[in-house]
Design brief:
Layout (H helix, E strand, L loop, with lengths): L5 E5 L2 H12 L4 H15 L9 E7 L6 E5 L16 E6 L4 E6 L9 H12 L4 H4 L1 H9 L1 E2 L2 H9 L1 H4 L3 H7 L7 E2 L2 H13 L2 H4 L2 H13 L5 H6 L3 E3 L2 E5 L2 E5 L6 H13 L11 H16 L1 H11 L4 H12 L8 E8 L4 E7 L7 E2 L4 E2 L30 E5 L2 E8 L4 H13 L5 H6 L3 E4 L2 E4 L5 H10 L3 E3 L9 E8 L2 E5 L7 E4 L1
Parallel strand pairs: 18-19
Antiparallel strand pairs: 1-11, 1-22, 2-3, 2-12, 3-8, 4-5, 6-7, 9-10, 10-15, 11-12, 13-14, 15-16, 16-20, 17-18, 20-21
Helix pairs in contact: 1-2, 2-3, 2-5, 5-9, 13-14, 13-16, 13-17, 14-16, 14-19
């Protein structure tokens, strides 16, 4: 029997299959993650797009880890509000309604295409044309719509009905229907032959420039021509004897995960169960402290690039002194036989409602994302890499290496933190660690996912006046996809909240 060649976790079976195909052909984890990310742009269209952006945390065996930042960049010039198309729509998640802002005035400079080619140039082994084949095939032949993808489309339906081309491209995506995207297949094929210049300087750039000028966007040709992928050293912290590597500032998600783990590291843990009242109380307090400290943590991190021990001490006292209990993103994790680890998180916001004409590419709405516009809409500084909650993360201890990440907008930080705690404090296997119910704290409000014991829910509700109890597991609480290589071999877990697939091969 052949030696296992890796572990893959992703948000869609076809995304995971693209990575598997490349690994089986002899490609490494970085070849596979590029193939999977491009395929996600076809089969997870609300969550990922060639006009979106993201981050890869790459740890090549025997080399220093590096973060590839190919997230969105604010435009070089801000047009007047009166001259731009920018308006709210409302997404109905069934249990909550969330406001998003769309239109061409919400589009930031995309980085996904530049990021995919940069990853391939620095780490890849197979030809780029080969890596894009699974995505081209999925777009041309079509993919059967799953119930989860149909539900996501229903949630954000106003965005995908906002323009004629969006309606024609996506239509009504009912479960079981085969969704073909011939324009996107042709675009991917052209990219495989012409490279990223097609998007940033060639015909696609010209089409986007014209669309933006004619219909009220900020972007122009100069924005696309000046875009660059940034390489950063990851943020590194120690927790329970493991090294945690995650997305560094100026992004917010990684530093807030590190802050939460820093609070937990010096705090007594109720080890009886990860769903015990004592542990849930502590976790809720840590999550709320992380929210309360968010501005101070980010300000300190921007100047030093790391956590402030003094700030940790202040909030640790707050947690210990507490009374006893009375958005669109996808992720891909891959580890290969050589020990290379790739954690890639990709987002298109929810989409702005417009496609680059005749390309099949939905544009992002990053300038309309409240979480990553801390100074308010239409107040962003020009030509600046945007912040993000995306936090591709690696956990390394002894011979074990784990790659993980999540979608879920501002729930990313709480989802990843809880999975790390489940793995390291409670020694869960990957599938159990991912499947356990979660909490999320935001703006004085505690959300409790369905699945906790009744006595835990009652105690949390009693201790937190602004509490919402969800009836079941829900994609609101993120989607952590995890790949692991340990002493006993490979393991993988896809988050069932977001249709996740985990495979070893």
């Amino acid at each position: 029997m052949a030696e296992p060649s890796g572990a893959v976790a992703a948000g869609h079976p076809v995304t995971a299959a693209a990575a598997e195909e490349i690994l089986r052909e002899g490609g490494n984890a970085f070849d596979a993650v590029v193939a999977a990310a491009a395929t996600a742009c076809v089969v997870e269209p609300v969550l990922a797009s060639l006009a979106g952006g993201g981050f890869l945390l790459a740890h090549k065996a025997g080399e220093a880890p590096v973060v590839h930042d190919f997230f969105a960049q604010t435009p070089l010039k801000r047009q007047s509000e009166d001259a731009t198309e920018f308006y709210p729509v409302y997404a109905n998640f069934g249990h909550v309604t969330q406001e998003f802002h769309i239109g061409l005035g919400s589009v930031a400079t995309p980085g996904a295409v530049a990021g995919f080619f940069d990853i391939h140039q620095r780490h890849g082994t197979l030809p780029m044309a080969r890596l894009l084949e699974p995505a081209i095939r999925a777009a041309r032949e079509g993919v059967r719509v799953e119930a989860l993808q149909s539900y996501i489309f229903d949630v954000v339906a106003p965005i995908y009905q906002a323009s004629r081309e969006a309606r024609e491209t996506y239509g009504s995506l009912h479960p079981g229907r085969v969704h073909r995207q011939p324009a996107l297949a042709a675009t991917l094929e052209a990219l495989s032959q012409e490279g990223p210049d097609l998007f940033y300087r060639g015909e696609l750039a010209h089409r986007l420039d014209r669309l933006s000028k004619e219909q009220g966007g900020h972007l122009g040709a100069a924005d696309l021509q000046s875009y660059e992928v940034i390489h950063r050293a990851p943020l590194s912290i120690n927790y329970r004897g493991a090294r945690i590597l995650t997305n560094p500032p100026p992004t917010a998600g990684g530093i807030l995960i590190a802050f939460g783990l820093g609070l937990l590291a010096a705090t007594p843990i109720d080890r009886s169960s990860p769903e015990s009242p004592g542990h849930m109380h502590l976790l809720a307090e840590v999550l709320e402290a992380t929210v309360a400290a968010r501005i101070a943590v980010l300000a300190a991190a921007e100047s030093s690039g790391e956590l402030s021990p003094k700030l940790l001490a202040v909030y640790r006292e707050r947690v210990l002194g507490a009374p006893p209990m009375n958005r669109g993103t996808t992720h891909i994790s891959i580890i290969d036989r050589a020990g290379n680890a790739a954690a890639l998180t990709l987002s298109n916001g929810e989409g702005c409602g417009h496609l680059i004409p005749d390309s099949g590419i939905m544009l992002n709405n990053m300038l309309g994302e409240e979480d990553i516009n801390p100074h308010g809409f239409n107040a962003w500084p020009s030509n600046r890499r945007m912040t993000s909650m995306m936090a591709p993360t690696l956990v390394e201890r002894d011979s074990c290496r784990i790659a993980m990440g999540s979608g879920g907008s501002n729930r990313i930080r709480s989802a990843i933190l809880q999975v790390i705690v489940n793995l390291l404090d409670y020694r869960d296997d990957p599938a159990t660690a991912v499947a356990r119910p979660r909490l999320h704290a935001e703006a004085g409000h505690l959300s409790i996912e369905g699945g906790f014991p009744a006595e835990v829910v009652a105690a949390l509700v009693d201790a937190h006046p602004a509490t919402e109890v969800w009836p079941a597991r829900n994609l609101f609480f993120g989607g952590v996809h995890l790949a692991m290589r340990g002493a006993d071999g490979f393991a993988a877990a896809g988050d069932p909240r977001r249709g996740g697939i985990g495979r070893t091969l």
